[in-house]
Specification:
There is one protein chain. With 185 residues, the protein is mainly α. It is built from 6 helices and no strands. The chain is globular. The protein has a single domain, classed as CDP-alcohol phosphotransferase transmembrane (TM) domain (Four Helix Bundle (Hemerythrin (Met), subunit A), Up-down Bundle), CATH 1.20.120. 81% of the residues lie in helices and 0% in strands.
Length: 185
């Protein structure tokens, strides 16, 4: 067990804390839940940075890191869907959650085929993740109806478009393995 893995596991431990705090009937619960999510997002960056810098990458960390990320994002988006009761938030949130499931399954399948590298994280994926985190933090911090919430939904749409774009890039990279009889169309 090393610090990067502990940071990764802390994100999973933060999920129930985040949910309970978000639903507390206090005015500070939104901002506190946003701070917890922001802290989790920062640990996502930090654990990867430390694992590379200290040469502490492990198979356990490589497995758990994307799981922790996807769990935290999916739970946060689900909580926001419940809180906002809005089709305008539900559509991009659903796109993001569905894309995460599709790409996770694709990566797992490609790893089984020995082609994991062809669906590695891309630069557009990093931009998508940044937009997604900013949107979620903003939406958590501002209750529905506030100007900040409108900004958050707008950024969530940007994240959803980038999500679809990155999914297309991943699927194009995997296409020859998914459909070997069709060539590289």
């Amino acid at each position: 067990m090393n610090l990067p893995n502990i940071l990764t596991m802390s994100r999973i431990v933060m999920i129930p804390v985040f949910v309970v705090i978000f639903y507390l009937p206090y005015s500070w619960s939104y901002l506190t839940a946003a701070a917890i999510f922001a802290f989790a997002a920062a640990t996502d960056w930090l654990d990867g940075y430390l694992a590379r810098k200290w040469d502490q990458s492990t198979p356990f960390g490589a497995f758990l890191d994307p799981v922790a990320d996807k769990l935290m994002v999916a739970v946060a988006l689900t909580v926001l869907i419940d809180e906002y009761h809005s089709i305008f938030l539900t559509i991009p949130a659903t796109i993001i959650i569905c894309r995460e499931i599709v790409i996770s399954a694709l990566r797992e399948w490609m790893a089984e085929m020995g082609s994991r590298g062809s669906v590695a994280v891309s630069y557009i994926g990093k931009i998508k993740t940044t937009a997604q985190m900013v949107a979620i933090i903003t939406l958590l911090a501002f209750p529905p109806g506030m100007v900040g919430a409108t900004v958050g939904i707008t950024v969530l749409y940007v994240a959803a478009v980038l999500t679809l774009w990155s999914m297309v890039l991943y699927l194009r990279a995997a296409w020859p393995d998914l459909f070997p009889d069709q060539g590289h169309s």
